[in-house]
Write a structure and sequence with these properties.
alpha/beta, six-stranded mixed beta sheet, single chain, 8 helices, Rossmann fold
C-alpha cells in the first residue's frame, strides 16, 4: 500500500508526518510526503509527479490554512483530488489543525450522499500522540476512518450557506417569472 501525506512545512505539519511515518514503519506501507515531493520536483515534470501521486492508495492532507500556501501545495491538493475522483476506492483523509475551516476541495472529493469527515487536532500539544496513533491505525487498516473522524457534513456554516443559496435562487426565479396581466 502506498500513502501520500501532503503537509505544511510548519513544525506542526512536519511533526505529524514524522510521527505517523514512524508508527506505520514495517507494516508494508510506503509513505511519500510533501518534503520528498518537493525534493524530487526539480528533476521531474509535474506530469510525472501527478502520475506518482495517482498511484497512491490513501491521501492524508494536513491542513493549517483553507487556501494552499504554495504552488506545490496547490498541485498536491489538486492531484490528491483528481486521484480520488478517478478511483473512488482511494481514501482522502483530511487532518485539520486548530480551527481551520474545511477547504472546498475536500468537500468536492466526497461522493454525493456520503458524510464529509475529517480529523481535527484542536490542541496539537495535547492531542498529537492520540491523533498520530489513530491515523496510523487507519493507514494500517486496523480501524475504519469513520470511527475516528469528526462528521462535518451539516455544520451551521453549511446550513447558512444553503439558506443563502436558496434565497438567491428564489429571488432570481422571481425575475424570470412570467408577469400576469
Amino acid at each position: 500500500m502506498k500513502v501520500f501525506i501532503s503537509h505544511p512545512f510548519s513544525p506542526a505539519g512536519k511533526k505529524l508526518v514524522s510521527d505517523v511515518a514512524e508508527k506505520v514503519k514495517g507494516s508494508g506501507i510506503t509513505v511519500q510526503t510533501s518534503g520528498e515531493l518537493q525534493q524530487a520536483s526539480p528533476s521531474q515534470s509535474w506530469s510525472q509527479l501527478a502520475s506518482d501521486l495517482s498511484s497512491c492508495d490513501k491521501f492524508v492532507v494536513v491542513i493549517e490554512n483553507a487556501e494552499p500556501k504554495t504552488k506545490a501545495q496547490d498541485f498536491e491538493w489538486r492531484s490528491c483530488l483528481e486521484a480520488t475522483w478517478s478511483d473512488p476506492s482511494k481514501l482522502l483523509i483530511p487532518v485539520l489543525i486548530g480551527d481551520v475551516k474545511l477547504p472546498n476541495f475536500v468537500r468536492s472529493a466526497i461522493p454525493a450522499g456520503k458524510a464529509v469527515e475529517a480529523i481535527r487536532i484542536e490542541n496539537p500539544s495535547r492531542d498529537w500522540n492520540q491523533v498520530a496513533d489513530k491515523l496510523a491505525m487507519v493507514l494500517k487498516e486496523q480501524t475504519d476512518f469513520s470511527t475516528i473522524a469528526q462528521n462535518l457534513s451539516s455544520t451551521e456554516e453549511d446550513r447558512a450557506r444553503q439558506r443563502e443559496r436558496l434565497a438567491y435562487l428564489k429571488s432570481t426565479a422571481e425575475v424570470f417569472k412570467p408577469k400576469t396581466m
